[in-house]
């Protein structure tokens, strides 16, 4: 019997005003794994948005929303950019947008609600009204 392990993992890089301030792992949640399986059959949802929040609840496989969502923005490229066995998603919060002490982020298939692919929590990134925040999310299939 052939036993091939199929893994989906992710990593998040957060830049504030162009400087990397966080590099953190994330969790591909159950709903996200189900969506990936559905995409193989042509019925899944493409990721189109990224959300940030101020919640601190630990990530759980069953998560479907952020703990306390602050703002959600469209991805720079809807559906992400594929390269070999990775897909890179990026979203930007310009000056005045998504201001606050950000402690969580998630990857979604819609501008509100939608399917959540992944979620991460981290120590606070304080975004003032004049800051520009860029989050790059890399999902790897191995």
Protein described:
With 142 residues, the chain is mainly β. It has one domain. 8% of the residues lie in helices and 49% in strands. The protein has a 5-stranded antiparallel β-sheet, with no helix packed on it. The chain has a 5-stranded antiparallel β-sheet with strand order 3-9-8-4-5. β1 and β2 form a beta hairpin. The longest helix is centred in the first third of the chain and has 11 residues, at 30-40. It is globular and about 55 Å long. The two termini are 20 Å apart. The model has no long low-confidence stretch (mean pLDDT 94).
What are the key terms here?
single chain; 142 residues; mainly beta; 5-stranded antiparallel beta sheet; 10 strands; globular
Task: Furnish the topology, listing elements before pairings.
Elements: E1 8-16, E2 19-25, E3 27-28, H1 30-40, E4 49-53, E5 69-74, E6 81-83, E7 86-93, E8 100-108, E9 116-127, E10 133-141
Antiparallel strand pairs: 1-2, 1-10, 3-9, 4-5, 4-8, 6-7, 7-10, 8-9
The Cα radius of gyration reads: 15 Å
Q: Kindly state the percentage of residues in helix.
A: under 10%
Shape: globular
**How is the largest sheet built, in terms of strand order?**
2-1-10-7-6
Count of the domains: 1
Q: Provide the structure class.
A: mainly beta
Termini separation comes to 20 Å
**Percent in strands:** over 45%
- In the predicted model, the low-confidence regions spanning at least 5 consecutive residues are none
Give average pLDDT, whole number.
94
Number of helices: 1
* Largest β-sheet summary: 5 strands, antiparallel
């Amino acid at each position: 019997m052939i036993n091939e392990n199929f893994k989906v993992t992710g990593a998040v890089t957060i830049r504030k005003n162009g400087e990397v301030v966080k590099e953190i792992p994330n969790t591909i949640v159950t709903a996200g794994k189900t969506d990936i399986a559905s995409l193989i059959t042509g019925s899944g949802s493409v990721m189109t948005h990224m959300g940030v929040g101020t919640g601190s609840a630990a990530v759980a496989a069953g998560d479907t929303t952020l703990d306390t969502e602050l703002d959600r923005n469209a991805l720079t490229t809807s559906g992400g950019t594929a390269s070999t066995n990775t897909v890179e998603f990026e979203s930007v919060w310009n000056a005045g947008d998504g201001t606050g002490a950000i402690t969580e982020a998630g990857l979604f298939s819609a501008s509100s609600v939608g399917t959540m692919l992944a979620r991460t929590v981290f120590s606070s990134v304080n975004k003032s009204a004049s800051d520009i925040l860029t989050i790059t999310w890399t999902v790897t299939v191995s």
